[in-house]
Specification:
The protein is α/β, with parallel strands linked by helices and about 950 residues long. Among the domains are: about 230 residues, P-loop containing nucleotide triphosphate hydrolases (Rossmann fold, 3-Layer(aba) Sandwich); about 70 residues; about 140 residues, no CATH class. The protein contains 23 helices and 25 strands. Strand 10, helix 12 and strand 11 form a beta-alpha-beta unit. Helix 20 packs across helix 22. The longest helix is centred in the N-terminal third of the chain and has 157 residues. This is AAA family ATPase. Keywords: Coiled coil.
């Protein structure tokens, strides 16, 4: 690094023009506070492209001079450090003289100030520099680079000029910052440059790889988009081709083939009908023969019925005559028996009274029984009358009342008894038994009426279910389930449909046990999950369908007939008891039954003799009438059957003849239609290419499209897709996709090449990092040696821990240089741990700073230190002086004149400044004291 030899200021701050010698190792600038010491240092800083101290800048100093131009000029040393010319500090700037002039020109530019720099060989005054062309002048950034080439690195610039009273700032660096600063000062710049260049090259390659990856991803995205468009284009073309194939080939061929098959099937059907018609003609001949025979049987049956009716009438008259002859004799015998019974007790008043009581009781019993039977008959008759004119059995009164309330509230509804019809009477008992509990379940028409309807049901105490969720019965139920024999005309509760579908119909309980699960027999024996039980319902209580009404009527009519027979018997018994009671009453009044027996004994005896014969005659007459009646019934049945067979055969013959006439008329029309269709089919076939209608081709079309209808639906679907879909119609999209594939392939190759280059760069960075680490180790060892030597001069024990360095950027970034100081044997103190005093802080910073500048091989360089002796006692000031002398660097120091004179002891040149007098235009000249060089 170069040394300063002289400095010239022109119109800088309050200095008009002055020249100062700086050709010494230590230059001390002394003067009172405010006399321009820092101003002089800031002039040097500005000339070297550094920042001024204390927030000031060059514009402030130029403005104070109140001139249009200010000049800063220095002459610096440029002697070679070795015999090679390239070892001169400014050799890189192509300056090879022993002296180099550095100049800074600050000009007013409108309302602002602009500085330019110039570097020339030799000692060239300002007057000549003014004539230099503008192209030779440099900006601040180029100027700093020029000075870096001469040894004034950016790292040295950061610590070159510490501000006033801040000489302890260097010890405030962190160990990591200190290590970086040491390497920047001592490091092999070429190795560092190579390492930085390799890292930069690798970063550029990494960025290129990332950019190539982004370009590849973008290209792949574009390729994917183009491939999607290609797929859409190909799908569109495929649909166009399929639409054309369907319209021109598939639909016409399949339609023709189906038409052909239909024509063949219909012709076969016409032939079958023709054969069947011939068979029916033979059947009609048989019907005619059979009809003649049945007519004869019908006439014979009619004659037999008429004959039996005549015989039955005669037998009935004979029966009536026998009964009329028997009745008075029978009554006379009964009278004799009653008189005998009465005669046996009429002599005993107690027995007669007992007889009267028994007859009275018997009369009362018969009267009660008559009343009971009459009541039952009236109820049955009323029930039968209530069924007259009805289409189905009426509901109970509570159900009818609740349904009437729902109708009044305009709530749509129906009950299950009104919507279920039993289609198989054989299973009526089973269905009635299972559905008995669901007869009066109310199903609402609207779900929204549920709350209102349930409120009415609660008020009316309706005991049956009220359902709002209903479903229609399935169209096709399990043929073996109970649901299969039921027909629903309205929706039913889902749970009821599910229950009926799960009940299997079986012929017997044995079959049901084998089948398992839930089943029921025709006699209504039902087995569910809880077990088996009979759910038989009396026919009089059947409810579902019109057949239930007929069953009820028949049951009530049978009940009425039985009640009529019982009433007749009771009436006869009442008549006999009444006659006996009358006789007993007369006997109690004195009438003698024995006298009447004696008086009518001949009549009674004759009646007893005649009664068996008359009874036998009546029985024979009844038997004769019964036999004729049975024969008449059989004859009537035979006549009915003969008449029915005759009518059935006659109807069959008539139907067959009408069908034959219709067949003859319609068959020819259908046959002509099919022949016309066959001719059209042949004509259509001739228009098709043979390969279209080949058997294999037709089978392939049927496998793919099933039939013509499906093909037409497919055609309509394709038309809809083409009309409504988003399709690609650009024919060049395939070519674009091909080009994009080639481009992506090129990008992939380029990316692989860049990755290879990046890997090579990574290896180069590793190698450069190894060399960088070697230089760093040597640099740290040298700096450590300087610190220890300077510490020994200062009487301070200095230790520095060598950092851990490895061939890894992370380790290098985390590497630290830990330096500790031991003052007066009081223990180790770190860089900035707060344990050192103010003076010790200055000593530490100066040791660190001087260690940076101490170089036995390449002496030189300079540094500005503003008031380095602050906070120091006399002894420490002496120590600082010895530090400065121990190095071969150049120092520019400032100190106030109030300090101890020891501060001037190390100085080779002392510049004495003074304050500008009040009212003066310029500051006084700076005094120069130069130490005489002793010659030995």
């Amino acid at each position: 690094m170069f040394h300063l030899q002289s400095l010239e200021l022109l119109h800088w701050d309050y200095c008009q023009r002055l020249s100062l010698p700086l050709d010494g190792a230590i230059i001390t600038v002394a003067g009172p506070n405010g006399s321009g010491k820092t101003t002089l240092l800031d002039a040097m800083r500005t000339l070297l492209g550094l920042e001024c101290s204390g927030g000031r800048n060059y514009k402030t100093y130029a403005r104070h001079a109140n001139a249009d131009t200010a000049w800063l000029r220095a002459v610096v040393e440029n002697r070679p450090r070795s015999r090679q010319a390239s070892s001169r500090p400014f050799a890189r700037n192509l300056l090879y003289s022993d002296q180099v002039t550095l100049a800074c020109r600050i000009e007013r530019n409108g309302g602002d100030w602009v500085r330019k720099y110039l570097m020339v060989e030799g000692d060239e005054p300002v007057e000549k520099l003014v004539d230099r062309p503008e192209k030779d002048w440099l900006g601040i950034e180029h100027w700093r680079k020029r000075l870096e080439g001469a040894g004034l690195s950016r790292a040295i610039a950061r610590v070159l000029a510490l501000e006033q009273g801040q000489t302890d700032r260097l010890c405030e660096y962190s160990p990591k910052e200190l290590l970086r600063l040491v390497f920047d000062v001592f490091g092999d710049q070429e190795g560092l440059d190579r390492y930085e260049e390799a890292r930069q090259h690798q970063r550029q390659l990494a960025e290129e790889v990332a950019a190539a990856e982004r370009d590849l991803a973008h290209g792949e995205a574009q390729l994917a988009h183009l491939e999607g468009r290609v797929n859409l284009y190909r799908q569109h073309q495929a649909k166009l081709r399929e639409r054309e194939t369907l319209a021109t080939e598939v639909v016409p061929v399949l339609t023709w083939a189906e038409e052909r098959l239909d024509i063949a099937a219909r012709l076969r059907e016409l032939h079958r009908q023709r054969v069947h018609h011939a068979m029916e003609a033979r059947q009609r001949r048989d019907y005619r023969h059979k009809l003649l025979a049945l007519a004869q049987e019908r006439d014979q049956a009619a004659d037999r019925v008429r004959q039996l009716e005549s015989d039955k009438g005669s037998a009935q008259a004979a029966q009536q005559q026998a009964r009329d002859a028997e009745r008075p004799v029978e009554e006379l015998v009964k009278r004799a028996d009653e008189l005998q019974a009465l005669a046996a007790v009429e002599g005993d008043a107690a027995q007669l009274a007992q007889r009267l009581r028994e007859l009275e009781e018997r009369k009362s019993q018969l009267q009660a029984k008559w009343h009971e039977l009459s009541t039952q008959r009236r109820a049955a008759q009323e029930a039968l009358d209530g069924l007259q004119g009805q289409r189905q059995a009426p509901p109970p009164s509570d159900v009818a009342r609740f349904l009437r309330v729902l109708r009044q509230e305009n709530i749509a509804h129906h009950v299950m008894a009104d919507v279920i019809e039993i289609t198989d009477e054989r299973w009526r008992a089973a269905a009635e038994g299972v559905l008995r509990g669901a007869r009066w379940v109310v199903v609402l028409g609207e779900r929204g009426d549920e709350a209102r309807a349930m409120g009415l049901a609660e008020r009316e105490r309706y005991r049956h279910y009220l359902v709002a969720d209903a479903a229609p019965a399935p169209a096709k139920a399990d043929p073996h389930s109970l649901l299969a024999v039921l027909r629903f005309s309205a929706p039913a509760p889902a749970w009821l449909l599910k229950q009926l579908a799960l009940i299997r119909r079986v012929e017997s309980t044995a079959d049901g046990v084998k089948a398992g699960a839930e089943w029921i027999t025709p006699d209504a024996y039902w087995r569910d999950a809880r077990g088996g039980r009979s759910v038989w319902v009396d026919p009089a209580d059947h409810q579902f369908g019109a057949a239930a009404l007929a069953s009820r009527k028949e049951s009530i009519e049978r009940q009425l007939a039985g009640l009529d027979r019982e009433l007749t018997q009771v009436a006869e018994q009442q008549r006999d008891v009444g006659r006996q009671l009358t006789a007993a009453i007369e006997a109690s009044k004195g009438h003698r039954a024995a006298e009447e027996l004696a008086r009518c004994s001949d009549d009674f005896a004759q009646a007893r003799l005649q009664l068996p014969a008359l009874k036998q005659a009546r029985v024979e007459a009844s038997r004769r009438w019964q036999a004729l009646d049975d024969a008449h019934k059989r004859a009537v049945i035979a006549q009915t059957q003969a008449e029915a067979a005759y009518r059935e055969t006659q109807n069959k013959l008539s139907d067959s003849e009408r069908a034959a006439e219709k067949f003859e008329r319609e068959w020819k029309e259908r046959h002509d239609v099919q022949r016309s269709r066959a001719a059209e089919s042949h004509a259509t076939r001739r228009r098709f290419p043979p390969r279209w209608i080949a058997r294999d081709k037709l089978e392939e079309l049927r496998r793919h499209y099933t039939n013509a209808t499906q093909a037409r639906l497919r055609q309509e679907g394709i038309e809809g897709d083409l009309a409504n879909g988003q399709w690609e119609t650009d024919a060049t999209v395939e070519e674009k996709a091909t080009l994009m594939r080639a481009a992506v392939a090129g990008q992939q190759g380029d990316l692989e090449q860049r990755k290879s280059s990046n890997e090579a760069a990574r290896i180069a960075v590793g190698n450069a990092r190894e060399r960088y680490i070697d230089v760093l180790r040597a640099t740290v060892r040298r700096y450590r040696k300087n610190l220890i030597e300077l510490g020994q001069l200062a009487g301070v024990e200095v230790t520095a821990d060598l950092p851990h360095l490895d061939n890894d950027d992370t380790v290098l970034r985390q590497a630290e240089l830990k330096v500790s100081f031991n003052f007066d044997g009081k223990g180790q103190i770190g860089l900035n741990d707060g344990e050192a005093s103010g003076g010790q802080q200055v000593i530490k910073s100066l040791i660190l700073l001087v260690g940076l500048l101490k170089d036995d091989e390449t002496p030189g360089g300079f540094v500005f230190i503003d008031e380095p002796f602050a906070h120091l006692d006399v002894r420490n000031i002496q120590l600082v002086g010895h530090f400065l002398k121990s190095t071969r660097a150049q120092y520019v120091l400032t100190t106030p004149i109030t300090h101890n004179v020891e501060v001037f002891e190390p100085a080779d040149i002392t510049l004495v400044t003074a304050k500008k007098p009040a009212g003066a235009r310029w500051a006084p000249p700076i005094g120069v004291l130069q130490r005489r060089v002793e010659v030995t």
